[in-house]
Specification:
- By secondary structure, the chain is an alpha+beta fold.
- It has one domain.
- Helix content is 32%, strand content 28%.
- It has a 6-stranded antiparallel sheet.
- The chain is globular.
Amino acid sequence: MNGSHLLIVLSSIMTTACISDLYSKPIAKRNVDISTISEEYVKATRGGILDFTAAIPGKVYHPRDGYIAYERFWCLDEEKGSVDDYQLLINEVCELKGGDMRGSWCSDKQSQRALFRATIEQNQTTCTGGYNTTIIHTLEPISSSIASEWIAASEMLGYER
């Protein structure tokens, strides 16, 4: 890689890391996947000037097992959001999708199938600037909550009907 390519890559990473103030917190929507909503929440509540984790993709697709995993740790600016704020958002999304939260799992009210899982935790460490280090982890089906791969995976990952 020559110098000009390296400069472009570094500029892109720095720009991505510095633009958290340009995002607004997401609103609950029925037709948006939980990993996208969570990703939007992280972007909107990120603290600090530089956050290099912003350049690392957080979604991992598991097509054979039928699910998407999203995981992100970041410095949560509690003037922009909180653990409780995220949990309220997740509860609202679950209701819009026809479910009830049972622990960290959103369960379909009628079929009792897993719709998604979402957790948020703070690990008692602080980032530069004094913000709390926070982690979100979500699981959701790639296609449908009735897909046999998702049902098997969700039960393997701790969902109980």
